[in-house]
Amino acid sequence: MAARVDAKPAASVQGTPLLATATLPVFTRGIYSTKRITLETSSPSSPPPPKPLIIVTPAEKGTFNVILFLHGTSLSNKSYSKIFDHIASHGFIVVAPQLYTSIPPPSATNELNSAAEVTEWLPQGLQQNLPENTEANVSLVAVMGHSRGGQTAFALSLRYGFGAVIGLDPVAGTSKTTGLDPSILSFDSFDFSIPVTVIGTGLGGVARCITACAPEGANHEEFFNRCKNSSRAHFVATDYGHMDILDDNPSDVKSWALSKYFCKNGNESRDPMRRCVSGIVVAFLKDFFDGDAEDFRQILKDPSFAPIKLDSVEYIDASSMLTTTHVKV
User: Fold this and answer.
1) Which residue out of 76, 81, 147, 157 is catalytically annotated?
2) Contacts 24+ apart (CB under 8 A), 99-107
3) pLDDT at 196
4) How much is the pTM?
5) Please, what is the Cα angle at 150 between 163 and 247, to 5 degrees?
6) For residue range 54-104, what is the model confidence (pLDDT) as tens digits?
7) Whether residue 169 lies in the annotated active site
8) Minimum mean pLDDT among 18-32, 36-50, 86-100: which range?
9) 43, 121, 237, 319 — which has fewest CB within 10 A?
10) Catalytically annotated residue among 71, 146, 220, 242
């Protein structure tokens, strides 16, 4: 898997946020119909996947870039079906392994090793399981993770040549010293220069049970601040919580309970949050993978185009080290 080494963002966008009167296409469903494929480790494909996984792909003919998605703490990969469908409808193949199902979860190191096995399966195993005339571009793969899966995504990017990394309210544990051994937040700077987008939540640091699900000191800000060699964007969904990117009612009972009762949730519908997250992901990858920067630059220039309130939108262009910051009130 080759990293994109020639990705150059456009110059930083600067301006005053306006009141958007219309949304951008990335925040609505795309032009492709989608197909969901479920594979077990007993699959007759050769080689079979090392972990059970879901593939959500455009059903039409074409060549599409790939996103490896890593689920949150003890959550089912089925709990993200709305986000997967939205992203795939814009021309991406989403591969979502079920790395584990246990509560408590396995060690973060074991989780990372499981994700590595799936990463190494992709070049040989993915294509044969796709619809006819649908081709996966496995030379340019993004890795994306939610919650503890976000930590795993960043750690995996230190091992493999991904084209981009995306963290959805990533968390490294209850503090900087927990999680992986050594802790990923023990690094002052991550040793990669691939483009990065981090989407945090305003309520992730608010405790509902014993502790917050994305506590300060181990949350999205810490990951973003360590991507010092990358062109990087940071968004905060002010009024939403750590689990608000999941489906409304996850079919898996354990995921449903974790989603509803374990973390502080927002008071509004989850649909705008899911569309916002999906749209930012699509716009970001269209920019850095396809060279189509229009939507991503528009979101950075005027965050009010998003379907939810975004605070403290920040973008740093690694090629010029210019910073654009919008604080929306």
Assistant:
1) 147
2) 99/51, 99/70, 99/71, 99/149, 99/152, 100/74, 101/74, 101/76, 101/254, 102/74, 103/74, 103/254, 104/74, 105/73, 105/74, 105/148, 107/181
3) 98
4) 0.89
5) 110
6) 999 999 999 999 999 999 988 999 999 999 999 999 999 999 999 998 888
7) yes
8) 18-32
9) 319
10) 242
Residue of higher predicted confidence among 287 and 208: 287
The CA distance from 325 to 11, in Å, is 14
Task: For residue 165, give the H/E element and its range.
Answer: strand 164-168
The alpha helices in the chain, defined as continuous H runs, are 81-88, 108-125, 148-157, 220-225, 253-257, 270-290, 294-301
Is residue 77 a contact partner of residue 148, using CB atoms and an 8 Å limit? no
Pick from 267, 288, 286: nearest CA to 278 = 286
pLDDT band for 175, please (50, 70, 90 cuts). low
pLDDT at 46: 83
11, HSE (Cβ side, Cα atoms, 13 Å): 2
| Active-site entry in 76, 86, 169, 231 | 169
Tell me which residue has tokens 């009130």. Answer: 329
**CA–CA distance from 55 to each of 39, 94, 95, 136 (Å)?**
8, 6, 5, 11
- Give the model's pLDDT for residue 319: 82
Tokens representing residue 325 in the block:
């910051």
Which residues are paired to 34 by β-bridges? 58
| Distance between CA atoms of residues 163 and 169, nearest Å | 20
Q: Active-site residue 90, yes or no? A: no
From the centroid of its chain, how far is CA 230?
16
